[in-house]
Amino acid sequence: xxxxxxxxxxxxxxxxxxxxxxxxxxxxxxxxxxxxxxxxxxxxxxxxxxxxxxxxxxxxxxxxxxxxxxxxxxxxxxxxxxxxxxxxxxxxxxxxxxxxxxxxxxxxxxxxxxxxxxxxxxxxxxxxxxxxxxxxxxxxxxxxxxxxxxxxxxxxxxxxxxxxxxxxxxxxxxxxxxxxxxxxxxxxxxxxxxxxxxxxxxxxxxxxxxxxxxxxxxxxxxxxxxxxxxxxxxxxxxxxxxxxxxxxxxxxxxxxxxxxxxxxxxxxxxxxxxxxxxxxxxxxxxxxxxxxxxxxxxxxxxxxxxxxxxxxxxxxxxxxxxxxxxxxxxxxxxxxxxxxxxxxxxxxxxxxxxxxxxxx
Length: 360
Description:
Elements: H1 2-22, H2 27-39, H3 43-56, H4 61-73, H5 77-90, H6 95-107, H7 111-124, H8 129-141, H9 145-158, H10 163-175, H11 179-192, H12 197-209, H13 213-225, H14 231-244, H15 248-261, H16 267-278, H17 282-296, H18 300-312, H19 316-329, H20 334-359
């Protein structure tokens, strides 16, 4: 079926190219050709077709917007701005131009300009919830969670079942330690999408922090039973919850299941190593950390964890080598340097004490 569709697209492209040869000034043909190239996901050709169109009609607003959007999704934001600004000069009454400018500046982490263009969008249309969601996300990204919450609530006032606003309000409440609010919003989403694995996991994490172990476990089990991309994360979060409630053996088994599911992901290895280290099972901790190191390779934080394990197990000389490796990999990290220097100095001082005792 896919091959058939591609054959049909190629045939359509051939027909349009012939039509363009007969009437090269007909701009509709260029739009049609660009559409078929977009269906093939050949965006370089889409841009090329639109550029040719703009040489015929520099005021073609749709071509300007579409080129800007392509550059936006390709993360070439300065190029995107160039075309959105040209579109604005062609039609300063099109709110989508201002919205696209806001989105682009938001991606560029330019808060003031993004907010300016979002507010300009609201001058033209103030009843579209996605605009308020975008402003909320802007505040969210700059960690102003109170303002973000206000704009998500505005989006919900316009569309009480807006999933973006509900999910992100849950996330904002979670970050504000308002776990009751987070649970309320996540629950609304789950009632609308009962097969959403990620939301089930959010509910489980929230209940775990509310110290509601029984219901947290129910949602963790529900998340693991659902299909989705959060299976690995569900095992890890469930393990953390089990550990927080004092069920360390169950937590270890859940970390092992996460590793079995995604053996090339380092996080479960590291967290398992931390758990073993806290239990003073240093050999097992070292093994888990070294398995993580095989995945991440030159990770200075892992060398620090390994060094800490050696140090707690009174293997000071081995710890010094690992601390030194961490400093070598991250020479700008002053904390690593201070720990390394302190351990070395303490080791030298202890060695001198031994020498004095031996001499005496």
